[in-house]
Amino acid sequence: MKVLVLERDTKERTLIQNALGKAGHFVILSDSAEQAWRLLEAGEARFVILDGEADDVKKTALIQRTRASNLPPIYFLALTSSEDDSVEADDTLHKPLSSSELKARVMIGQRFLSLGDSLSQARDQIENMAMYDTMTGMMNRNAFYRTAQAELERARRASSSLSLIALDIDNFKVLNDRYGIEMGDRVLKAISQTIREKSRPYDCIGRWSGDEFVIALPNVVGPDAEKVTDRIIKGIQSTHITFKDDTVNVAVSAGIASVTRITHSAEIEPLIDQARQAMSRAREAGGNQIFLTFV
Fold it and tell me: Fewer Cβ neighbours under 10 Å: the N or C end of the chain?
């Protein structure tokens, strides 16, 4: 582990270097609180040992400044020679130092950081679970709605275009009834993978419900949106899904709602509704086709 040390006392500094070096840590020395701040900003270390009584540490409010920033959690071990409890560090260690006590405190701090990272990862996983559909890995309805709304706001500010595509698997219920739910799940996964592959990396894609998918295309209008949709449909048509001894080819119906210029009155919900209505018209016309409407 990298440990940033801000301690000017030569004796204490040498003791810290020797003790941490023997414990397998890499020591980064700093001569001032400002230099320490720059190193922390650069991500050089997440564990800091500092003289809690140093004037520039107090004057620059290094600990408070770090905690108020957007930096990852940083653990502070403050060295003091008094009983002053005003130092807002994570832990304090009284001088003169002993190597064994210093190593023990660093080990405790390292465990705290590791636990914090584990909790942060768990929190990220929970947030992802709340945003993404577990079956397809795409954004769920709520996440898509929020993301598409943000795309619409960007398009509104730039007075640019936006298109919404709605896709529905033709005869999906028939497939489920004939082959079972496991086959239906395979179809959903394969279709969602094809949609991702045939879309642009920055397009907003979500699973709206059941076998229905939605895509927001910023800066795309009319015929260009049709080209994107046609590419997706052809990709799906060429996808062969096998289950036991059967191979299934799937077709989809697609509807596009396209706005040439997003104005102050445009809203995302009516645009999604228009795309879904266009999709229904494509399905009613026989399926496996695209219906485009301008809003």
Answer: N
121 lies in the same domain as 151: no
**121 CB-near residues (< 8 Å, 6+ apart):** none
Structure confidence at residue 162 (pLDDT) = 94
Residues in the chain: 295
**Per-residue tokens: 126:** 């929970």
The one catalytic residue in 117, 211, 245, 273 is 211
- The backbone torsions φ and ψ at residue 290, rounded to the nearest 5 degrees and listed phi first, read -120, 140
- The SS3 assignment for 171 reads coil
For 44, the enclosing helix (H) or strand (E) is: none
**Residues with pLDDT less than 70, the chain:** 83-87, 119, 122-129
Q: Given this model, what pLDDT does residue 295 score? A: 85
Rounded to 5 degrees, φ, ψ at 11 are: -65, -50
Residue 136 lies in a domain: no
For residue 105, tell me if it sits in a domain.
yes
211 is a catalytic site residue = yes
If asked whether residues 100 and 151 sit together in one domain, one would say no
Which alpha helices (H) appear in 68-180, and where do they start and end?
A: 99-131, 141-158, 172-179
185-214: pLDDT as tens digits: 999 999 999 999 888 878 899 999 899 999
CA dihedral 90, 93, 94, 97 (to 10 degrees): -160
Number of domains in the chain: 2
| Residue 253 CB-half CA count within 13 A | 19
List the domain range (segments joined by +) for residue 215: 141-294
Nearest-angstrom CA–CA distance, 96 and 13: 11
Identity of the residue numbered 224? D
What lies within 8 Å, CB to CB, of 61 at 6+ separation is none
Among 238, 252, 258, 248, smallest CA distance to 283 is for 252
Spatial strand order in the sheet of 75-80: 26-29, 2-6, 47-51, 75-80, 91-94
